[in-house]
Records
---
Amino acid sequence: MKVLGLIVEYNPFHNGHLYHLEESKKISGADFVVCVMSGNFIQRGEPAIVNKWARTKMALSAGADLVIELPLSCAMASAEYFASGAVRILNDIGIVDYICFGSEHGDVKTLDYIAQILVEEPESYKSFLKEELDNGLSYPAARESALKKYTAHSINIPQIISSSNNILGIEYLKALRRIKSSIIPLTIKRINNDYNTENITGSISSASSIRKYISTSNSTSFDDVLAMTMPKTSVDILFEEFSAGRGPVFKEDFYPVVTSLIRKMTPEQIRNFAYVSEGLENRIKSAADTAGTYEELVESICTRRYTKTRVQRILMGILMGVTSKDLDMLSRFDSPQYARILGFNSKGKQLLSQIKKKSSIPLVLKLSDFIKSCDPVLKRKLELEILATDLYVMCYKNPAFRKAGQEFTQNIIIM
Amino acid sequence: MKVLGLIVEYNPFHNGHLYHLEESKKISGADFVVCVMSGNFIQRGEPAIVNKWARTKMALSAGADLVIELPLSCAMASAEYFASGAVRILNDIGIVDYICFGSEHGDVKTLDYIAQILVEEPESYKSFLKEELDNGLSYPAARESALKKYTAHSINIPQIISSSNNILGIEYLKALRRIKSSIIPLTIKRINNDYNTENITGSISSASSIRKYISTSNSTSFDDVLAMTMPKTSVDILFEEFSAGRGPVFKEDFYPVVTSLIRKMTPEQIRNFAYVSEGLENRIKSAADTAGTYEELVESICTRRYTKTRVQRILMGILMGVTSKDLDMLSRFDSPQYARILGFNSKGKQLLSQIKKKSSIPLVLKLSDFIKSCDPVLKRKLELEILATDLYVMCYKNPAFRKAGQEFTQNIIIM
């Protein structure tokens, strides 16, 4: 029994994801697949286009056996926290043999070598780094330069660390090294066209191009373009959600809620929220005063230092009321602390009984039971998860599905 | 020079308003008309269908000469506060000779007699009242019974005080008496069909039937039904707003903002807001958790004691962050303290120069100047006005008009 772990968002599940899933099984020789998936809000600081239960169905119908939720506090965080949270879950459940991630580079040894340097920080690397920092370079620039020097230019560092999936991959590898995990990392070279993620370009298109297509098309039933770039089961699940009036959910739907919150606050109040560092509160305030759309709001806060995804995560933090204090409290944990099951198939059921034996963290099958018994900090974390969903569902087109408390009422997906 | 004062909402201005305006001029013999009008939020605790500047245009084009804003803290308040705020402004500007209001009863003497009893509280009335309260009657029921006894059944008290415009009229009369105003009150019997305010019934229809019609029809240009029940100038202004994408604004537009705010709060936090008395916080909380629409939210909070309009005002208070503390502070004033000009015509300009000489309260022509010079409590009141508009404009369909600060940038309407 070989178990493969995948770290995913599936927003929504498309042919590229299917390719990755099938190739990963092939190269690992694994016969079971566990996915750790972000929930109703994703790493970019946006709501997912359809909820996590629908995306769980997509994953299971495409070959995943078990889907575990990456808690919001890890899912909607920087690449480093996202990666370490997901890796910790896959490690802590005690049954995963391989992790396979997509990367632009495609060679796990090189990426892992970089991860090793960054985790172990050998003396000469550290002195290169210090030198560059003393020269006035920013931390990322100093790190890049130190890596180049340390590897004696044997690796094309700038090219590798300029690609988002390589960066994320290195973070997975760092996380595995830090916890001395026995999980074997693998990577698959990404085959999608990264030069054009804006538009659907063929059978393999980016998730963002698909979301963009959905936001501009008004398809509510069968759609040629989506059928070309997503597995049929995914398209069916997507339209099942749309026709029920549960989505598509877009960040734009949060314009009134987020902007009105900020318009009501003073810059000093904005300052209290997570990741709002000095000066940014004024940018956020004046952006909310002038912005007519969510996109405008984000764009007018962004700077070179504050990237779009970082700004989006900050705004979602404001939406959910996550203060710097909360963040301090939540980050006292170095791991997600629990594995919440979103769905499984019959093979996943076998995995669950293995996990029950081997996991070092509790398995959460029923949130209402778990929340009663857990400690206060974990409780705050779960309350955040519950609130996030209570706010997410308000964006549904169909009022009948906007009820709060769906984290308690929604059943685990069993396929 | 005779000046007539009208207290209005014009949401939107229709034939019934025109009839009232013209009849009032006729019976008073006045040659000038000053309107005190609620702003972007109205007495029922709802946003106005189009903004106050558009409604000012409607008023001026229908025969009003000067429009003064009733500040939010009075406009979105109980009949008593609404009436006393509006009457105080008309009194304090020092030039108004008559106030003429619509009433179901139509006889100002009878209404004023009731007002006199309620203001002066003669001994025998007071003892009737005490008796009924001691018998366990609610205050409104005890008052009704005491009035019946005091007037020795010479007036049909129950019939009079069961009609909303009589009630409001009595409040105007009470306010005039309390401040010993020299303004002469007049009333006109309302001619609209009160038995059916749900649907447009003819050339005189209620404002709520017109709003309902607009919410269900999708007219964005000329419309037969509206043309039948509103003056042409009003219809034109309405469609000018709609086609620019500034409205129609409905309370339903506030569903995500208000509901998400409440979903984030504990009942204890809800308790801090204005007019939320013991126990209501739990109703509000659970209503927000289950409601899929604003209408549902309101309906599930209402009780016999908490009427729909009261609940709506409470929800708007939560939206704007008005706490009980704020309310205590704001109600330290017994009058609006200033007269903010929304618009005028050439005759209104003449009035303004008279007001400048005779008014006991400052005339606000430029908010940015006034807010700098006023005292802290008044400043809080104005900030509330500014915030209300900053939140109101976010509901516009056209993102270009959603900017904050329109209280500062919008010019006075001069026609």
---
Amino acid sequence: MKKLREFLDPPKVLVLGFLTIILIGTFLLTLPYATINGDGLSFLNALFTATSAACVNGLVVVDTGSTFSTFGILVILSLIQIGGLGFMTFATFFAVLLGKRISLKERLVLRESMNSSSIEGIVKLSKRIIFFTVLIEIIGAIILSFRFAADIPTGKAIFFGIFHSISNFNNAGFDLTGEFKSLTHYVDDSIMTLTVCALITLGGIGFIVLNELYEYRITRRVSLHTKVVLATSFVLTFGGTILILLLEFGNPKTLQTLSHDGKLLAALFQSVAPRSAGSSTLNMADLTQSSLFLIMFLMFIGASPGSAGGGIKTTTFATLLGAVWSQIKGKEDVVFFRQCIPFNTIYKALTVTVSGLFLAVVLTMLLTITENNQDFLMILFEAVSASSNVGLSMGLTPDLSPIGRILVIIAMFAGRVGPLTIAYAIATKQEANTFRYPKGKMMIG
Amino acid sequence: MKKLREFLDPPKVLVLGFLTIILIGTFLLTLPYATINGDGLSFLNALFTATSAACVNGLVVVDTGSTFSTFGILVILSLIQIGGLGFMTFATFFAVLLGKRISLKERLVLRESMNSSSIEGIVKLSKRIIFFTVLIEIIGAIILSFRFAADIPTGKAIFFGIFHSISNFNNAGFDLTGEFKSLTHYVDDSIMTLTVCALITLGGIGFIVLNELYEYRITRRVSLHTKVVLATSFVLTFGGTILILLLEFGNPKTLQTLSHDGKLLAALFQSVAPRSAGSSTLNMADLTQSSLFLIMFLMFIGASPGSAGGGIKTTTFATLLGAVWSQIKGKEDVVFFRQCIPFNTIYKALTVTVSGLFLAVVLTMLLTITENNQDFLMILFEAVSASSNVGLSMGLTPDLSPIGRILVIIAMFAGRVGPLTIAYAIATKQEANTFRYPKGKMMIG
Ligand SMILES: [K+]
Ligand SMILES: [K+]
């Protein structure tokens, strides 16, 4: 019994689960009929593509639309759906149901919305997550299919609609439009922009929030978690839109030539997509350095907890800012919406942020060595994108050296399973020591 | 009485003190006889130079050695000495003597070494700091004068020896060698390298540590603070040396052409100087992107508390790593040398780091706008260097636009007085609230 429980240790299930679907995906993508040319992918490129898809990252070494056969595309779509749904479920479980030590506190978040916290709770939770996923993906697919049908044959349009709905709701950022162009063809298209932005936002906001909003008509209340997620997401989305609008307004390669509405739509898309879907309606390499730096910042923050999105998460960012603000103002507590944030939460925010910085810094460092003739900004952008599960690129990915590809594969995997594994370690392993060392004094700053 | 106390509020004294010496310095450097050409500096360049000198930063828009008259150089040297000594004293006071709330705990660090914590303590402390400063600067000046005398006339050599000893002990990074070349002429010179590295290290390690080591023969013990500073500095210095050695070994523009000893000396210098003196024996722009990224990392960490150096400080970095490590291992406490680090200290480390990141990120963002045709790596390097009080540059400083110069001036000032002002706010303003909000639950990561 103990052996079984050890075997089903959640981080192990997470890591082994992802490894398994990545390896199956890699195998399938090397098959001759996975690609249009009938050769299949090389092992390294297949591993890269499968890892990117299963981790819903979105970085690609080969162009998805022009390389893969329908079979290959279906393999990628399955990896995205399994990876995205699996991770979203895991992330919600980890944060809500699991964890001996925090469960007493944090489980309450779930209980508020699910009225349960046992095995039935898990089953009910999974069903609910699948329900939301399928519902939103179907609505997205219908709208996108109609939009694509204006440009391409109906059958292909439906296929495109389904693919891009699933890809964006899961924050995967894969596309079928060809030539690594993502959605640049639709830069000033309001239906495409608003639908995809809605899919990305709903997919990145986290299940807890979706569920609370869904049940609001009954419960008539939202938790602190939901308030902080909504407030932070709002500020980042619209703050990002305004800044990109200002920074790109006079850029002839990006916004300058667009209409007023087109400018707004393009700025909105480029603000939403870095957190952390990885689609784009502008060519990243055409943006100003200022916008690219801003986008890196947005990528690093990423989506919200309990979603398929990446980054350190909105609540982490809000907690950091709150902690600094209260320290500077000489307040003892970090207070959001008249509730005080416990030390444990601040401590976790610190750990998540430093780990995230560490992964991005180490990957940047290693890529500057392996890709030593590439531009630093391109490398930094790629590293932040890979480790934060975003999938935006200034165009470096297809040019990566073999060792660079392996490094990015490892970073995509670590950026996906690492944070949850750390969260689990924090949640479960902490024990009150019977023996404690005396407190030491040290100067800081 | 209360008005006088308010007027002497330490952050105000710090900010007004620095502003005053910067403005006096600016005035003196605009005088015709401050420069060799008899024109004096323009107001903006004088303000830049005076700010850089008083804040012991080291970024320069005009080459010090070939622009200024002896009078101008003496003005700069005075600004460095007043700024460096003043800040070191303030930083030690802030961390040790002042602060109602932390004083009970942290004052002990001082009491251990000074056996006092009252007004006499302050006087004794100031005397002791001046004693260390003068002693080390004289020894440094003598060694450097002898070294310079091998190349240049004796009188000039003594002047050079005094200037470079004061500049490097105060982590100011100004030099008189001409053409923005810093100490590149001495790249494989062991006397120059080792003397300057020793000056930088002793100036950056902080007064508390110097004093404890000085009194070790009597006390036979060192505090936790000193242990952590020494351990972290050791790891960063030699880790940095090894990494730079590896990264530059085959670079024909830097280490490749040097002898074995020369390689070691150059790697050591480029590892020590970013924390945070800002001298260099290699042209920064010639280094590999990997080394430059590593140097940015070292610049951001910087020196130790209670010194004239900048950055988030060694103890802050150690605390962050310790906090993450203990979280991942599921330990409740952060333990260094069998002493547990209080939550308050971890919280301060978080605040200092996030504030430091904020300053560097905002400056980078603004400089990408004002210097939009410059290379991103150069801009990022400049921003980290300016805000961490380092003074290393890939060569951007003299090419900065007027607005860019103003931004860097503000960042140098903020990077100097900001951290201490924040530290003071943390130390004094915190009050136990009689009313506290209830604890809220939130998911992180
Ligand atoms: K993504
Ligand atoms: K400096």
